[in-house]
């Protein structure tokens, strides 16, 4: 009979599984990464995997949540650091920083191809509020920060969604993407934010 993992072993295995999933999410994608690959890299059996996660998809959802915090943390700082700035400046800093972090993390392909698949494994309320997969979450975050809009909510949401879709296709746009995005964000905020 196998002995149970110690807390130290559990922590080390969880870290290995997480790091393996993160690497494969960036290179291969969720659906092309097998449970065999993840467990082999963590040094555990497939049956032991289920002592850590309900499913492979739950592990990748944890990776997505981590990336979400890696995006929202710096974006929130950009939004709140300049309390003296106008709502337009604060909103532009938040949106631009969020999209820049997506690029820095290299997760555009993951967001475009894998996150919609993973959303099917999340409770509906979580899938709808996940900032990585929803323009609504970006909009709600701006609202919570008391940014006031001059346009109807559906227009603001559509503009945010267009910008979100653009970052997912950054490879098709090329080197001029970030100067173009900066101009787009500035223009949108000048037009839609009080």
Please explain how this structure is put together:
The protein contains 11 helices and no strands. Helix 5 (87-105) runs parallel beside helix 9. The chain is elongated and about 65 Å long. It has 194 residues and is an all-alpha fold. It is 73% helix and 0% strand.
Keyword list:
mainly alpha, 194 residues, 0% strand
Summed up:
By secondary structure, the chain is mainly alpha-helical. The chain has helices at residues 7-27, 35-42, 46-49, 56-81, 87-105, 108-119, 124-129, 135-144, 153-168, 170-173, 177-192.
Give the SSE map:
Elements: H1 7-27, H2 35-42, H3 46-49, H4 56-81, H5 87-105, H6 108-119, H7 124-129, H8 135-144, H9 153-168, H10 170-173, H11 177-192
Number of strands: 0
Largest sheet: none
Share of residues in strands: under 5%
First-last Cα distance: 66 Å
Mean pLDDT: 88
Structural class: mainly alpha
Give me the number of helical elements: 11
Radius of gyration: 19 Å
Query: Shape, please?
Result: elongated
Q: What letter string, H or E per element, gives the SSE order?
A: HHHHHHHHHHH
Q: Give the fraction of residues assigned to helices.
A: over 70%
- List segments where confidence is low: pLDDT < 50 over at least 5 consecutive residues: none
